[in-house]
Design goal:
two-stranded antiparallel ribbon, 2 strands, 4% strand
Length: 298
Protein backbone atom coordinates (compact mmCIF):
# COMPACT_ATOMS: atom_id res chain seq x y z
CA UNK A 1 0.00 0.00 0.00
CA UNK A 2 2.83 2.40 0.86
CA UNK A 3 4.54 1.80 -2.48
CA UNK A 4 1.23 2.30 -4.30
CA UNK A 5 0.60 5.69 -2.67
CA UNK A 6 4.15 6.82 -3.36
CA UNK A 7 3.87 5.93 -7.06
CA UNK A 8 0.55 7.79 -7.29
CA UNK A 9 1.99 10.92 -5.69
CA UNK A 10 5.04 10.89 -7.99
CA UNK A 11 2.82 10.27 -11.04
CA UNK A 12 0.78 13.40 -10.37
CA UNK A 13 3.77 15.65 -11.23
CA UNK A 14 4.26 13.98 -14.62
CA UNK A 15 0.49 14.05 -15.10
CA UNK A 16 0.41 17.80 -14.56
CA UNK A 17 3.04 18.24 -17.29
CA UNK A 18 1.05 16.03 -19.68
CA UNK A 19 -2.04 18.10 -18.87
CA UNK A 20 -0.28 21.31 -19.94
CA UNK A 21 0.60 19.70 -23.27
CA UNK A 22 -2.96 18.40 -23.67
CA UNK A 23 -4.50 21.83 -23.03
CA UNK A 24 -2.23 23.32 -25.70
CA UNK A 25 -3.38 20.62 -28.14
CA UNK A 26 -7.06 21.03 -27.42
CA UNK A 27 -7.12 24.85 -27.62
CA UNK A 28 -5.65 24.89 -31.13
CA UNK A 29 -7.77 21.99 -32.32
CA UNK A 30 -10.95 23.49 -30.84
CA UNK A 31 -10.50 26.91 -32.46
CA UNK A 32 -8.44 26.38 -35.62
CA UNK A 33 -9.62 22.83 -36.33
CA UNK A 34 -6.23 21.24 -37.04
CA UNK A 35 -4.15 18.61 -35.27
CA UNK A 36 -1.10 20.74 -34.56
CA UNK A 37 1.77 18.25 -34.67
CA UNK A 38 4.29 21.07 -34.14
CA UNK A 39 3.09 21.39 -30.53
CA UNK A 40 5.52 18.67 -29.46
CA UNK A 41 8.38 20.59 -31.05
CA UNK A 42 7.39 23.78 -29.20
CA UNK A 43 7.54 21.66 -26.02
CA UNK A 44 11.08 20.63 -27.00
CA UNK A 45 12.08 24.24 -27.78
CA UNK A 46 10.75 25.32 -24.38
CA UNK A 47 12.91 22.67 -22.71
CA UNK A 48 16.03 23.86 -24.57
CA UNK A 49 15.21 27.52 -23.93
CA UNK A 50 15.02 26.76 -20.22
CA UNK A 51 18.30 24.86 -20.34
CA UNK A 52 20.25 27.66 -22.04
CA UNK A 53 18.64 30.36 -19.87
CA UNK A 54 19.56 28.54 -16.65
CA UNK A 55 22.83 26.78 -17.57
CA UNK A 56 24.36 29.44 -19.85
CA UNK A 57 22.73 32.77 -18.94
CA UNK A 58 22.44 31.89 -15.25
CA UNK A 59 18.82 32.91 -14.68
CA UNK A 60 16.94 31.58 -11.67
CA UNK A 61 13.88 29.34 -11.94
CA UNK A 62 10.97 31.78 -12.24
CA UNK A 63 12.54 34.28 -14.71
CA UNK A 64 13.79 31.37 -16.84
CA UNK A 65 10.34 29.75 -16.80
CA UNK A 66 8.53 32.95 -17.79
CA UNK A 67 11.02 33.75 -20.55
CA UNK A 68 10.81 30.16 -21.85
CA UNK A 69 7.02 30.49 -22.01
CA UNK A 70 7.37 33.77 -23.90
CA UNK A 71 9.79 32.19 -26.39
CA UNK A 72 7.44 29.21 -26.77
CA UNK A 73 4.55 31.56 -27.53
CA UNK A 74 6.62 33.39 -30.16
CA UNK A 75 7.76 30.10 -31.73
CA UNK A 76 4.16 28.82 -31.97
CA UNK A 77 2.96 32.07 -33.59
CA UNK A 78 5.83 31.95 -36.11
CA UNK A 79 5.02 28.34 -36.99
CA UNK A 80 1.42 29.39 -37.57
CA UNK A 81 2.50 32.36 -39.68
CA UNK A 82 4.75 30.37 -41.99
CA UNK A 83 2.89 27.07 -41.95
CA UNK A 84 -0.85 27.62 -41.60
CA UNK A 85 -1.60 31.22 -42.59
CA UNK A 86 -0.90 30.57 -46.31
CA UNK A 87 -3.30 27.62 -46.18
CA UNK A 88 -6.00 29.68 -44.46
CA UNK A 89 -5.66 32.40 -47.10
CA UNK A 90 -6.11 29.83 -49.86
CA UNK A 91 -8.95 28.07 -48.03
CA UNK A 92 -7.12 24.74 -48.06
CA UNK A 93 -6.38 24.34 -44.33
CA UNK A 94 -8.80 21.44 -43.86
CA UNK A 95 -7.41 19.58 -46.86
CA UNK A 96 -3.70 20.24 -46.31
CA UNK A 97 -3.40 21.19 -42.62
CA UNK A 98 -2.63 17.69 -41.34
CA UNK A 99 0.23 16.94 -43.73
CA UNK A 100 1.60 20.49 -43.38
CA UNK A 101 1.66 20.17 -39.59
CA UNK A 102 3.37 16.80 -39.83
CA UNK A 103 5.97 18.14 -42.27
CA UNK A 104 6.66 21.20 -40.11
CA UNK A 105 7.05 19.00 -37.06
CA UNK A 106 9.63 16.78 -38.77
CA UNK A 107 11.49 19.80 -40.16
CA UNK A 108 11.77 21.51 -36.75
CA UNK A 109 12.65 18.27 -34.93
CA UNK A 110 15.54 17.29 -37.15
CA UNK A 111 16.74 20.86 -37.58
CA UNK A 112 17.03 20.96 -33.79
CA UNK A 113 18.80 17.61 -33.89
CA UNK A 114 21.36 19.05 -36.32
CA UNK A 115 21.88 22.21 -34.25
CA UNK A 116 21.87 20.80 -30.71
CA UNK A 117 23.18 17.30 -31.53
CA UNK A 118 21.64 14.15 -30.10
CA UNK A 119 23.54 14.30 -26.80
CA UNK A 120 21.14 14.54 -23.84
CA UNK A 121 21.50 17.63 -21.66
CA UNK A 122 20.77 18.07 -17.98
CA UNK A 123 19.39 21.18 -16.28
CA UNK A 124 21.41 22.68 -13.46
CA UNK A 125 19.94 22.18 -10.00
CA UNK A 126 17.25 24.87 -9.70
CA UNK A 127 15.73 23.60 -6.45
CA UNK A 128 17.19 21.96 -3.38
CA UNK A 129 16.46 18.24 -3.60
CA UNK A 130 14.52 17.20 -0.52
CA UNK A 131 12.26 14.32 0.41
CA UNK A 132 9.12 15.39 2.25
CA UNK A 133 7.45 12.99 4.66
CA UNK A 134 3.69 12.96 4.07
CA UNK A 135 2.47 9.89 5.99
CA UNK A 136 3.40 6.60 7.62
CA UNK A 137 1.46 3.51 6.54
CA UNK A 138 2.09 0.03 7.95
CA UNK A 139 5.38 1.23 9.41
CA UNK A 140 6.63 2.56 6.06
CA UNK A 141 7.28 6.26 5.52
CA UNK A 142 5.60 7.77 2.46
CA UNK A 143 7.85 10.46 0.99
CA UNK A 144 7.61 12.67 -2.06
CA UNK A 145 10.28 14.73 -3.79
CA UNK A 146 9.88 18.44 -3.10
CA UNK A 147 10.74 19.08 -6.75
CA UNK A 148 7.85 16.87 -7.94
CA UNK A 149 5.49 18.54 -5.49
CA UNK A 150 6.47 22.07 -6.55
CA UNK A 151 6.17 21.20 -10.24
CA UNK A 152 2.66 19.83 -9.61
CA UNK A 153 1.74 23.02 -7.71
CA UNK A 154 3.15 25.19 -10.53
CA UNK A 155 1.24 23.32 -13.25
CA UNK A 156 -2.00 23.59 -11.28
CA UNK A 157 -1.38 27.32 -10.78
CA UNK A 158 -0.82 27.85 -14.53
CA UNK A 159 -4.05 25.96 -15.27
CA UNK A 160 -5.96 28.08 -12.75
CA UNK A 161 -4.64 31.29 -14.34
CA UNK A 162 -5.62 29.98 -17.77
CA UNK A 163 -9.12 29.19 -16.55
CA UNK A 164 -9.45 32.73 -15.18
CA UNK A 165 -8.21 34.09 -18.52
CA UNK A 166 -10.94 32.20 -20.39
CA UNK A 167 -13.73 33.14 -17.98
CA UNK A 168 -12.87 36.71 -16.97
CA UNK A 169 -11.22 38.39 -19.97
CA UNK A 170 -12.84 39.53 -23.21
CA UNK A 171 -10.20 37.79 -25.35
CA UNK A 172 -10.62 34.57 -23.38
CA UNK A 173 -14.40 34.65 -23.80
CA UNK A 174 -13.95 35.33 -27.53
CA UNK A 175 -11.67 32.28 -27.76
CA UNK A 176 -14.31 30.13 -26.07
CA UNK A 177 -16.90 31.43 -28.52
CA UNK A 178 -14.51 30.80 -31.43
CA UNK A 179 -14.21 27.16 -30.38
CA UNK A 180 -17.95 26.87 -31.10
CA UNK A 181 -18.00 28.66 -34.46
CA UNK A 182 -15.07 30.81 -35.58
CA UNK A 183 -16.67 31.74 -38.91
CA UNK A 184 -19.87 33.08 -37.32
CA UNK A 185 -17.83 34.98 -34.75
CA UNK A 186 -15.83 36.65 -37.53
CA UNK A 187 -19.07 37.66 -39.27
CA UNK A 188 -20.08 39.41 -36.04
CA UNK A 189 -17.00 41.62 -36.24
CA UNK A 190 -14.41 39.67 -34.25
CA UNK A 191 -10.81 39.61 -35.51
CA UNK A 192 -10.54 35.90 -36.38
CA UNK A 193 -6.85 36.03 -37.34
CA UNK A 194 -6.02 37.87 -34.12
CA UNK A 195 -7.84 35.23 -32.07
CA UNK A 196 -5.96 32.46 -33.88
CA UNK A 197 -2.64 34.18 -33.12
CA UNK A 198 -3.57 34.44 -29.42
CA UNK A 199 -4.61 30.78 -29.46
CA UNK A 200 -1.24 29.68 -30.83
CA UNK A 201 0.57 31.95 -28.35
CA UNK A 202 -1.31 30.43 -25.40
CA UNK A 203 -0.71 26.93 -26.72
CA UNK A 204 3.00 27.63 -27.24
CA UNK A 205 3.42 29.09 -23.75
CA UNK A 206 1.81 26.01 -22.20
CA UNK A 207 3.94 23.65 -24.29
CA UNK A 208 7.13 25.52 -23.36
CA UNK A 209 6.22 25.43 -19.66
CA UNK A 210 5.68 21.67 -19.91
CA UNK A 211 9.08 21.26 -21.59
CA UNK A 212 10.75 23.38 -18.89
CA UNK A 213 9.24 21.31 -16.08
CA UNK A 214 10.12 18.04 -17.80
CA UNK A 215 13.71 19.27 -18.16
CA UNK A 216 13.84 19.77 -14.39
CA UNK A 217 13.01 16.08 -13.90
CA UNK A 218 14.71 14.30 -16.80
CA UNK A 219 17.34 14.79 -19.51
CA UNK A 220 16.35 16.70 -22.65
CA UNK A 221 17.15 15.87 -26.28
CA UNK A 222 16.03 17.20 -29.70
CA UNK A 223 13.51 14.44 -30.47
CA UNK A 224 11.82 14.51 -27.06
CA UNK A 225 8.77 16.29 -28.46
CA UNK A 226 7.63 13.42 -30.69
CA UNK A 227 6.49 11.04 -27.94
CA UNK A 228 5.45 13.79 -25.52
CA UNK A 229 3.25 15.37 -28.18
CA UNK A 230 1.51 12.07 -28.84
CA UNK A 231 0.96 11.54 -25.12
CA UNK A 232 -0.50 15.03 -24.81
CA UNK A 233 -2.92 14.21 -27.63
CA UNK A 234 -3.84 10.97 -25.86
CA UNK A 235 -4.58 12.96 -22.68
CA UNK A 236 -6.73 15.44 -24.63
CA UNK A 237 -8.73 12.61 -26.22
CA UNK A 238 -9.09 10.84 -22.88
CA UNK A 239 -10.45 13.93 -21.13
CA UNK A 240 -12.45 15.14 -24.11
CA UNK A 241 -11.39 17.52 -26.89
CA UNK A 242 -12.44 21.06 -26.00
CA UNK A 243 -12.51 20.51 -22.23
CA UNK A 244 -9.72 22.05 -20.15
CA UNK A 245 -10.90 20.19 -17.05
CA UNK A 246 -10.96 17.00 -19.11
CA UNK A 247 -7.38 17.58 -20.30
CA UNK A 248 -6.27 18.05 -16.69
CA UNK A 249 -8.03 14.87 -15.60
CA UNK A 250 -6.67 12.94 -18.58
CA UNK A 251 -3.12 14.15 -17.95
CA UNK A 252 -3.18 13.28 -14.25
CA UNK A 253 -4.70 9.87 -14.93
CA UNK A 254 -2.12 8.95 -17.56
CA UNK A 255 0.75 10.27 -15.44
CA UNK A 256 -0.32 8.10 -12.51
CA UNK A 257 -0.98 5.08 -14.75
CA UNK A 258 2.52 5.36 -16.26
CA UNK A 259 4.16 5.56 -12.85
CA UNK A 260 2.20 2.57 -11.55
CA UNK A 261 3.16 0.56 -14.62
CA UNK A 262 6.81 1.55 -14.31
CA UNK A 263 6.90 0.80 -10.58
CA UNK A 264 5.00 -2.50 -10.48
CA UNK A 265 5.56 -4.01 -13.94
CA UNK A 266 8.46 -2.62 -15.97
CA UNK A 267 9.60 0.82 -17.18
CA UNK A 268 9.59 -0.65 -20.68
CA UNK A 269 5.78 -0.85 -20.63
CA UNK A 270 5.30 2.73 -19.42
CA UNK A 271 4.82 4.33 -22.84
CA UNK A 272 2.26 1.74 -23.92
CA UNK A 273 -0.20 2.65 -21.18
CA UNK A 274 -1.26 6.09 -22.41
CA UNK A 275 -2.08 4.82 -25.90
CA UNK A 276 -3.82 1.70 -24.60
CA UNK A 277 -6.05 3.88 -22.41
CA UNK A 278 -6.71 6.23 -25.35
CA UNK A 279 -7.81 3.35 -27.60
CA UNK A 280 -10.03 1.93 -24.87
CA UNK A 281 -11.73 5.30 -24.29
CA UNK A 282 -12.27 5.81 -28.03
CA UNK A 283 -14.01 2.43 -28.21
CA UNK A 284 -16.24 3.02 -25.17
CA UNK A 285 -16.78 6.81 -25.17
CA UNK A 286 -15.39 8.57 -28.27
CA UNK A 287 -16.07 12.06 -26.85
CA UNK A 288 -13.86 11.38 -23.82
CA UNK A 289 -14.76 11.76 -20.16
CA UNK A 290 -15.77 15.43 -20.34
CA UNK A 291 -16.00 16.09 -24.07
CA UNK A 292 -18.92 17.77 -25.76
CA UNK A 293 -21.21 16.09 -28.21
CA UNK A 294 -22.57 18.64 -30.68
CA UNK A 295 -25.57 17.85 -32.83
CA UNK A 296 -25.40 18.77 -36.50
CA UNK A 297 -28.35 21.02 -37.34
CA UNK A 298 -29.67 21.26 -40.89
Amino acid sequence: MAALIQQVVNGLASGGIYALIAIGWTTVFGIVGIINWTHGEVYMMGAYAGFFLTACVGLSLIPALLLSMLLGAVAAVLLDQFGYVPLRKKGTLKQSGFITALGLSILVRYSANAVFRADPRVYPQLMTYQLLHIATIEGTDITVSAVHLKILAATLFIMAVLQLFFKKTLVGKAMMAASQDLHTLSLMGADAEGLIKVTFAVSGALGAAAGFFMGMLYTIFPTMGALAGLKGWACAILGGIGSIAGSVAGGLLIGVAENLTSGFLSPGYKDIVSFAIMILVLLIRPTGFMGYRFEEKV
